[in-house]
Amino acid sequence: MPLLRHGKVVDDCWVFVEDEHELSPGGCLTVSLGRFLSEHDQLLARNEAIGVRLAASDDPALLAPHLDRLRLIELNFPKYTDGRALSQSQLLRRRYGYKGEIRAVGQVLRDQLRLMIRAGFDAMVIEETDAEDVYDFSAHEFSEFYQAASDTSETIFMKRHRKKQEKAAE
Length: 170
Prior knowledge:
The chain has a single domain, classed as Alpha-Beta Barrel (TIM Barrel). 32% of the residues lie in helices and 20% in strands. Strand 7 (101-106), helix 3 (113-119) and strand 8 (123-125) form a beta-alpha-beta unit. By secondary structure, it is of the alpha/beta class. The relative contact order is 0.14.
């Protein structure tokens, strides 16, 4: 499946290692939250690129003390109707100030891409043959937003308030 990063299909060097499998001696690895929490000293001492995959039920606050050392956080969409990963991404970006890559994995659908972008996702693994075209369409499908999010899009209410202030200043 293609990996989209900022709208472009890119090669993926990251490998998710299941809990019961041995870690490879090098490379970019992601592990489950449980494994990271139980082995974080050894994982971070590897001086390699380390990432964590959060399940939809995992609490991102558990990663807060380690965020500056993680290069990737994968958020899982176990089924297309489960949006908890959107909330996890918002928490990581807005509350905890995570600056690394946040990637959507699992059942990622084209309908969700714009919401993912607004929630702070940088990358998505999506099962689409024309992934870049799908991204371009989804990223620009809506021009106005009612709610603030992790992106910098100005909401309708912000625009309305700004216009009122400009008129009052005249």
